[in-house]
Amino acid sequence: MKLGDLVSIRECSDTVDCECFFCHHSSSRIGLVTGPAEYNQWHVMFDCGEWELSDGEAEVIYEGR
Question: Pick from 56, 63, 62, 49: which is nearest to 9 by CA?
Fold first, then answer.
């Protein structure tokens, strides 16, 4: 991941009782990488707010320039 990339988070396996950040907010799970965070993590803006992700936690679906 790098600044400007569009990323997608995988759906949870148990969405009925899941209370994760993305399920709780009924997110589309698609976000924009807005900048680096500490320890190989990235700030990513989703439709439900900002979240920090590590490399490998999301699939890059569009690479920014």
Answer: 56
Domain range summary for the chain, segments of one domain joined by +:
6-62
Give residue 15's pLDDT band: very low, low, confident or very high (50, 70, 90).
low
CA angle 36, 4, 29 (to 5 degrees): 90
- Mean confidence (pLDDT) of the chain: 91
Query: What is the DSSP secondary-structure string of 33-57?
Result: EEEE-SSSEEEEEETTEEEEEETTS
Instruction: For residues 61 and 5, give the distance between their C-alpha atoms in angstroms, rounded to a whole number.
Output: 8
The Cα–Cα gap between 61 and 1 comes to 10
Q: Are 25 and 49 in contact (CB under 8 A)?
A: yes
